[in-house]
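Regression test case RT-17, inverse folding.

Input:
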């Protein structure tokens, strides 16, 4: 998808960093059936050092006592500007994020997942990243608690964004966007993601914030990494949720490639070529050397990702490497299956 290029300084009003009163920030927290961890998330938001902000919780049709918690929390914290809204049906994280952005009163809209616990200075440091006229979005550092099992260890560090300036991507659980830019380039809400839990189409695969990143980048805006804006991600994984993460990630990657006309995913190409080379190797044995080379490239790339991108030690990377090899099989099959489905649907429309 191509987005029209704009002059960011003309489209986005720049904050006056010299002003004595900071701009109002709206913190949007999408949630669904996370009553226990949501209370910890809100408690951390109530302790923020930023002097001017509001908190907006969008409840995605929870079946637990989330509404009761919100009412009780608001009564117990009268100094916190807290508002909440409830989706009539389970619609997905991106729908909730967009609704929160529409309801926001702030010049900036920060997003925090309901299973993330923000440091007291998180919001202050995150918003300080809007130090130039053409910065449309900023993203912070997501840390993980100690792993309780091998599945959590394997996925630890997966939301880390490296660097201190230009952001290579945005992390939906720790980011902020100028509201006027967000209203122009909202999160993708395409239907068709079937949820086994509720039997409904939802719009929140893994990679659900990458569409926003791509749209802002295509329009000429800058996006920054703020590593000092830190949140703790207390999401727990077991075997089922680990492989569900792999499948959703593959489907989400296919959606992005299809919607935004991107080249094939580099992280999946060695594995895809490996599978494509197997029939040839069976017929013509000398090509097994090429197949073995592709396997070596895939394993080395995985190890590099675990150590240098996700921040694991060599021993920690070696421990989870076999599981991550299996993880990427599920991710690849989901990617290929979703790509085929999207192409078929496109042909039917034509």
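Golden output:
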């Amino acid at each position: 998808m191509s987005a029209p290029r704009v002059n960011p300084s003309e489209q986005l009003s720049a904050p006056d960093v010299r002003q004595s009163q900071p701009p109002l920030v709206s913190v949007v927290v999408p949630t669904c059936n996370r009553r226990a961890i949501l209370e910890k998330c809100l408690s951390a938001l109530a302790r923020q050092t930023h002097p001017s902000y509001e908190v907006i919780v969008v409840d995605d049709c929870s079946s637990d006592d989330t509404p009761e918690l919100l009412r009780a929390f608001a009564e117990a914290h009268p100094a916190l500007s807290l508002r909440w809204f409830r989706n009539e049906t389970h619609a997905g994280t991106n729908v909730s994020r967009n609704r929160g952005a529409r309801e926001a009163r702030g010049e900036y809209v920060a997003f925090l997942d309901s299973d993330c616990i923000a440091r007291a200075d998180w919001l202050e440091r995150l918003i300080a990243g809007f130090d130039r006229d053409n910065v449309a979005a900023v993203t912070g550092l997501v840390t993980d608690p100690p792993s309780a099992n091998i599945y959590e260890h394997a996925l630890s560090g997966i939301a880390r964004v490296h660097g201190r300036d230009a952001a290579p991507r945005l992390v939906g659980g720790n980011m902020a966007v100028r509201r006027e830019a967000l209203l122009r380039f909202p999160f993708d809400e395409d239907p068709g993601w079937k949820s086994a839990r509720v039997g409904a189409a939802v719009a929140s695969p893994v990679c659900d914030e990458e569409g926003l990143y791509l749209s802002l980048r295509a329009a000429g805006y800058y996006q920054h990494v703020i590593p000092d804006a830190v949140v703790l991600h207390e999401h727990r994984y077991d075997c089922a949720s680990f492989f569900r993460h792999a499948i959703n990630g593959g489907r989400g990657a296919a959606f992005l490639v299809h919607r935004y006309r991107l080249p094939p995913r580099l992280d999946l190409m060695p594995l895809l070529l490996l599978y494509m080379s197997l029939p040839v190797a069976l017929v013509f044995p000398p090509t097994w050397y090429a197949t073995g080379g592709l396997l070596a490239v895939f394993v080395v790339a995985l190890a590099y990702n675990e150590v240098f991108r996700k921040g694991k030690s060599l021993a920690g990377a070696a421990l989870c490497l076999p599981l991550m090899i299996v993880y990427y099989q599920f991710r690849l099959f989901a990617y290929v299956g979703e790509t085929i489905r999207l192409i078929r649907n496109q042909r039917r429309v034509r």
